[in-house]
Backbone:
């Protein structure tokens, strides 16, 4: 009856271990899916970083264009001042020459034509200055849009840092679980050694019983019954050893799963460190470009 109870208990334990093994396999599959999702997020983050670099380069190009346009505007203003000075000079000259109309009528007509051409050039320069001002307003609006994009990228970076902290906590939990699994493995090894010693002892007992059976031929029937009992006990011990082997196999599979999870978590940690270094470099470069 005790052997049957032990059998039932062992069967229940093996069924429970199979359920736990199935649950762990499901957890590993879910973890793999989470790893794939994290890889997609990492690719998106890298594309965002590349886009930020492209936007920074475009911003530098636009700044250079604005500088060249400001230089052009200053040059045009200097030309406009020169034209105004020449216009004032021609007016004074016209007053002086108006007193000498009789002597220099042809020269006065030439100066009038020159005055007209200068007036046209002044109008053209004023129209160009208006166009340059409108272009400057467009460039200012584009700079504001670039600043908004940079703020969005900084928000994404903070979100990724929070995810990285969560993954670090998961790695610590996995390390603790690995330590507990190693302790269970050592306990199972000790139990296996004890079982081996018990089987050897039972083998020795069986040999002694066989010798006694050869010596005592008169008690053959009693020894046969005892031999049957010993065989049954040996079968139970072998069955027990097989179940212990199954338990060891379950423990080995659990250890393999934990090793794979730890390796995947280490790879994630290394990738995240590289991504964070890349993002810090991009942030420093963007801040330098802003300054």
Residues:
């Amino acid at each position: 009856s005790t052997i049957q109870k032990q059998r039932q208990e062992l069967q229940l334990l093996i069924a429970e271990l199979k359920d736990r093994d199935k649950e762990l396999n499901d957890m590993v599959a879910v973890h793999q899916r989470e790893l794939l999702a994290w890889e997609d997020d990492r690719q998106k983050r890298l594309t965002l970083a590349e886009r930020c670099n492209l936007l920074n380069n475009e911003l530098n190009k636009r700044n250079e264009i604005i500088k060249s346009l400001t230089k052009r505007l200053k040059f045009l203003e200097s030309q406009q001042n020169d034209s105004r000075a020449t216009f004032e000079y021609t007016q004074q000259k016209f007053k002086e020459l108006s007193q000498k109309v009789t002597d220099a009528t042809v020269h006065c007509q030439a100066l009038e034509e020159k005055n007209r051409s200068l007036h046209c050039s002044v109008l053209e320069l004023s129209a160009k200055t208006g166009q340059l001002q409108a272009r400057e307003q467009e460039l200012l609006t584009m700079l504001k849009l670039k600043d908004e994009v940079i703020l969005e990228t900084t928000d994404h970076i903070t979100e990724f840092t929070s995810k990285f902290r969560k993954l670090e906590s998961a790695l610590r939990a996995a390390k603790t679980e690995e330590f507990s699994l190693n302790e269970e493995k050592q306990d199972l090894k000790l139990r296996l050694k004890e079982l081996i010693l018990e089987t050897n002892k039972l083998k020795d007992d069986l040999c002694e019983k066989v010798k006694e059976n050869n010596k005592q031929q008169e008690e053959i029937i009693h020894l046969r019954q005892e031999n049957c009992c010993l065989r049954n006990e040996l079968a139970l011990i072998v069955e027990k050893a097989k179940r212990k082997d199954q338990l060891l196999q379950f423990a080995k599979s659990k250890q393999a799963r934990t090793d794979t999870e730890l390796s995947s978590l280490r790879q994630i940690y290394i990738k995240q460190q590289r991504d964070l270094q890349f993002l810090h470099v991009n942030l420093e470069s963007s801040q330098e470009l802003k300054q």
